[in-house]
Write a structure and sequence with these properties.
Elements: H1 3-18, H2 23-38, H3 41-46, H4 52-60, H5 65-72, H6 81-89, H7 103-115, H8 117-127, H9 131-142, E1 151-152, H10 153-161, H11 166-175, H12 178-181, H13 186-214, E2 222-223, H14 236-242, H15 257-270, H16 278-289, H17 293-313
Antiparallel strand pairs: 1-2
Helix pairs in contact: 1-2, 4-5, 6-11, 7-9, 8-15, 9-15, 9-17, 10-13, 13-14, 16-17
Length: about 325
């Protein structure tokens, strides 16, 4: 029930009672009216949270009920409509990948190689993935952890998970500028949002499971506008499959450099890096990490430069 409907019902009851002045019926209805008139309409509106159906669905799918309820009752939970709208118009081709090949970026990556040499050497022996490739991935993903993203992951994924609902779609569309709406038809946008909703719900379940398993504060996890988190920008579903504990503390924390390094190396190992022969096969493995040729070319080129720099520095 909306607030307008509630107020209209209240007005009808009050008017009706003013014309009814006697008998037990009057007393009974007067009591009911007192409850209706004095009832706080905000209690009704609480049921209209945009995530109410999502919350029930997560619990029905077997996720920890108390955790789910605590998340969606938290004041920091909100729709990220502008983020969802921005995802519809973002293009990989417009990103500045050249910045990662600048002299500054290469020097920063070289320092990172030296600073984390112990864990990088250990991981290279363990998984067979060159340290230069791992560092290049981390540089292009988050500038080696400098820019892991600013969006609350729980909000991003929750918003996209409910994006198949018509009312939410309308709100996302209204967040787009007029010229942006003209770029794609409403039908195309609706299909894209429904597809993203399916994927985002899957990622949201993985995120809640990760939070529960590792006793993580849901509102400490920030990341990209697509819901990827940590230094290596893993989607939540990849954490369980490919996340690795690099420092031996028994937890997987992708904001920890040792864990991030081990996780990237294991991911590439599992996608057959060690069997890849030649540049094209290796680039195909990197495409499994990010489906962008711009991204892959940048990672591979940066890794080559790091390899040459290490070779020239070796006595």
């Amino acid at each position: 029930m909306t607030l307008l409907a509630f107020m209209a019902m209240k007005e009808v009851v009050v008017t009706w009672l003013s014309n009814l002045r006697h008998g037990k019926t009057y007393l009974l209805f007067k009591l009911a009216a007192v409850v209706l008139v004095t009832f706080n309409p905000l209690c009704l509106l609480a049921d209209e949270s945009p995530f109410a159906n999502l919350e029930r669905r997560l619990i029905e799918d077997g996720l920890d009920a108390r955790l789910v309820q605590s998340i969606y009752q938290h004041p920091m939970v909100k729709l990220e409509l502008a983020v969802a709208a921005g995802n519809l118009i973002r293009s990989e081709a417009t990103l500045d990948y050249g910045q990662f090949l600048s002299a500054y970026s290469v020097a920063k990556a070289e320092r990172y190689l030296r600073r984390h040499s112990h864990v990088l050497e250990e991981v290279e022996k363990r998984f067979g993935v060159p340290r230069e490739i791992v560092v290049a991935v981390l540089m292009v993903e988050t500038a080696l952890g400098t820019y892991p993203g600013k969006y609350l992951t729980i909000n991003v994924l929750s918003t996209m998970a409910v994006a198949r609902e018509r009312g939410i779609q309308d709100e996302i569309l209204s967040s787009l500028k007029a010229e942006q709406r003209r770029m794609q038809s409403p039908e195309v946008i609706s299909r894209r949002l429904k597809k993203r909703a399916v994927r985002s719900y899957r990622e949201l379940k993985a995120l809640v499971n990760y939070i529960h398993k590792n006793d993580v504060d849901p509102f400490s996890l920030v990341g990209s506008s697509e819901g990827a988190i940590g230094i290596p920008q893993f989607l939540p579903s990849n954490i369980e499959s490919y996340g690795r504990d690099g420092d031996g503390d028994g937890r997987i924390d992708l904001f920890n450099h040792a864990d991030a390094i081990a996780s990237v190396a294991f991911y590439l190992r599992q996608h057959r890096w060690r069997k890849a022969r030649g540049t094209q096969e290796k680039k195909r493995v990197l495409l499994r990490y990010n489906h962008s040729t711009y991204y892959v070319d940048t990672v591979y080129t940066l890794a080559q430069r790091l390899d040459r720099a290490e070779a020239s520095a070796t006595p």
